[in-house]
Amino acid sequence: MNCGTDYKRRHGRMAPRIAGLVLMVACFFSGLQTVRALQSVPGGSGPGNTDRTATVGYPCTYLELVLPAPEVVPLQLPDRSQPVTVRIDRVSKHGSDFRYDLQVTGLEAGKFNVSDFLVTGDGQPHPGLPPIWLEVQSLLPPGQVEPHPTTAVETGRGGYYLPALVAGGVIWLTGLMSILFTRRFRTLRPGSSRSTLTLAERIRPMLVRASLGNLDSATAAGLERTLTSFWRRRLRLEHLSPEVLISTLRKHEEAGPLLNQLEAWLHRPEPDEVPDLEQLLRPYQEYSDLGI
Hints:
Elements: H1 2-40, E1 52-55, E2 59-67, E3 72-74, E4 84-94, E5 97-106, E6 110-113, E7 118-120, E8 133-137, H2 161-195, H3 199-212, H4 217-234, H5 242-251, H6 255-267, H7 277-281
Parallel strand pairs: 1-8
Antiparallel strand pairs: 2-5, 3-7, 4-5, 6-8
């Protein structure tokens, strides 16, 4: 019983609060609709009053303004000399008529009929628009000196700007290309000097070491592979197996002397006589790589 009594008391206290909150929300939305309705009536003095007052440069808004069909669009003069500009923010159907939200800005002081700046879709004046008066007031006192209107002046061919721009671009590109090619040349220069060495000059130091018995096994194996690959490509013996290729090259008139002598240096460090190294290297003088 006590729990039920406490629940009823708490529920009875919350009910007035909820009712008050609902009333506040309803009042808020009602006031919002009232404000919108007042804004939709220019001047705020009744649905038939479309007279508005604004200052130069400040937009004036017409909300929910109903105008007869056909649909209208803002007038756009080619020279933009119109004293009033109109922007349509929203348009919707209202029975056989149209409902508009307009934003009108006066560019000079005076009293203007906004309907004069609305035309049909094909650019013709609308014959059935009611007058929509806007009085534009100036914040500046009378007698202010206005600036002179600007006039277009013929500037000729642009003076020296375009030739100077082209010349600067050419100079910039020339400098860029010189920097790129200079770096490329410096980068390739060491490699290019190595590539000009003949095969004889490349293998000569290894052969000298081999003749003195100072050539290690790894370098010796690489030297043998170099000579074998060179003669295999030059004589077009790619179809032969390694065993047959070695046997064939040792019997060859040009390839055999150096291959046999290298084998003798590697396996017989103390030969009976010293061969002519230049004579052995003569077949390799004209080649700078392993090709032919």
